[in-house]
UniProtKB/TrEMBL annotation:
<keyword id="KW-0521">NADP</keyword>
<dbReference type="InterPro" id="IPR020904">
    <property type="entry name" value="Sc_DH/Rdtase_CS"/>
</dbReference>
<comment type="similarity">
    <text>Belongs to the short-chain dehydrogenases/reductases (SDR) family.</text>
</comment>
<dbReference type="InterPro" id="IPR002347">
    <property type="entry name" value="SDR_fam"/>
</dbReference>
<dbReference type="GO" id="GO:0016491">
    <property type="term" value="F:oxidoreductase activity"/>
</dbReference>
<dbReference type="InterPro" id="IPR036291">
    <property type="entry name" value="NAD(P)-bd_dom_sf"/>
</dbReference>
<dbReference type="Pfam" id="PF13561">
    <property type="entry name" value="adh_short_C2"/>
</dbReference>
<protein>
    <submittedName>
        <fullName>Sorbose reductase SOU1</fullName>
    </submittedName>
</protein>
<keyword id="KW-0560">Oxidoreductase</keyword>
Amino acid sequence: MSKTNLSVKPSQTGEQFARRTASRLEQIQLQLDSSPRGTRLKGKVCVVTGVGSLIGIGRASAIQFAHEGAQHLYLMDLDGTNLPALKSTIAQKYPDVKVTVIQVDAADEAAISGVCKQALREEGRLDVFFANAGIATQLPLESSSAEVFMNTLRVNTLSCFLALKYASEAMMETNPSRGKEHSGGSIIMTASVAGIRAGAGSVDYSASKAAVNNMAQTGALQLTRTDVRVNSICPGLIHTGMTDTLFQSARRRNSESKIGQLNPLGRYALAQEIANVATFLASDQSSYVNGQNWAVDGGLSCSLPVVPGKFA
């Protein structure tokens, strides 16, 4: 039986596509500068972990939450180096948004319980918890160890469990005097396409993110009829502090334009594109989205391995 060709449109030349991609990424980087202030998170009290990287998802989300009118942001990272600058950046652009920065391990139970209690004490409510902190390893199976495996699960998975446990408790607290008449809130966890399919990460990393995806589903069910929603975001290849080594290596080889070529969009993504999804999930616009694992990967996980334009 002969192979059947699919009907596909002619692609642009490599140079044309590279120019178009560069232009698109520049537009994304500048999206908040050209967008008026929003109100999607007006009055909401939010916690975001893993905000330390200057090109990371946590930082991009914190700034976008402020852009959308969040009332108070509690921003956390294990590395406190860039926290003062992040607070200053938000204060300058969005002086109406309260910002509290905390240097802490997102897998520290006392710290996560404490920030949820702090939000209730200071603001009388907690509405959003974005459990974004995480680490990645690139060790092959034969070079890994039980210690590496357990540490990855501690940082990537335990941190999300603690957010689920303590944030949900805080979100179920009502406070009519602060405008919270009913239980409710949004818990968002950063997982990965590595938690959906093999091939995107090491064994320990992939296992930790698969657990996060399941936790979003199980957590949503456990919190039935509380109006506390739980969802995970599964990024594909994003340019962040975690992946910057890959991008630097590609630049040295003059092959940066090839990064992300395996997905249908043919490019990598920026942290702002994940922040867009996090902001939607944090807002009331996603009020009926619950227990889902959102793949934000340019279409990478939508297909089996095939040659474009042909049935395998």
